[in-house]
UniProtKB/TrEMBL annotation:
Keywords: DNA damage, DNA repair, DNA replication, Hydrolase, Magnesium, Metal-binding, Mutator protein
Source taxonomy: Bacteria, Pseudomonadati, Pseudomonadota, Alphaproteobacteria, Hyphomicrobiales
Family: Belongs to the Nudix hydrolase family.
The protein's required cofactors: Mg(2+)
Domain of life: Bacteria
EC code: 3.6.1.55
Protein name: 8-oxo-dGTP diphosphatase
Gene3D superfamilies on file: Nucleoside Triphosphate Pyrophosphohydrolase
């Protein structure tokens, strides 16, 4: 069997001053619609992960993040049927602007212990215990 194509997606745990994490619901018409994910997206050719995340956060949420405010946390990895997803997760506590759902997505700020109540793509779900350990409940 040929190896699965590797797809790189970057994601971020945006954490507000109340220790809540931002989740975005994948909109209708997209693969995995209705599931909740950490914001982010696919790397474009030639982009570094941090550049990609800064672009995605501007496009999807209308916020400006400085590269120095993005700290790498861990990696998620999942073999979907047609590609293998590799997804570094960053954490970010400081940004400029107000978070807005610019792509029609529903947004929710949730406490770490509430994350399990939101159905997530299989790549994102294993990140939950990691975030609970890091941020507390
Ligand atoms: O967001 P986008 O549709 O570009 O992501 C490509 C694919 O990566 C999705 O179809 C999904 O399978 C996967 N993905 C994921 N978790 C995320 C973002 C994307 O599993 N947080």
């Amino acid at each position: 069997m040929p190896p699965l194509k590797l797809t790189l997606v970057v994601a971020v745990a945006l954490v507000d001053t109340d220790n809540r994490i931002l989740l975005a619901q994948r909109p209708e018409g997209k693969q995995l619609a209705g599931l909740w994910e950490f914001p982010g997206g696919k790397l474009e050719p030639g982009e570094r992960p941090e550049e990609s995340l800064i672009r995605e956060l501007r496009e999807e949420l209308g916020i400006t993040v400085k590269e120095a405010c993005l700290a790498p946390l861990t990696f998620a990895s999942h073999a979907y049927e047609s590609f293998h997803l590799l997804m570094p997760l960053y954490i970010c506590r400081r940004w400029e602007g107000f978070v807005q759902p610019l792509e029609g997505q529903t947004l929710k700020w949730v406490r770490p212990h509430e994350l399990r109540a939101y159905p997530m793509p299989p790549a994102d779900e294993p990140l939950i215990p990691f975030l609970i350990d890091l941020l507390g409940a």
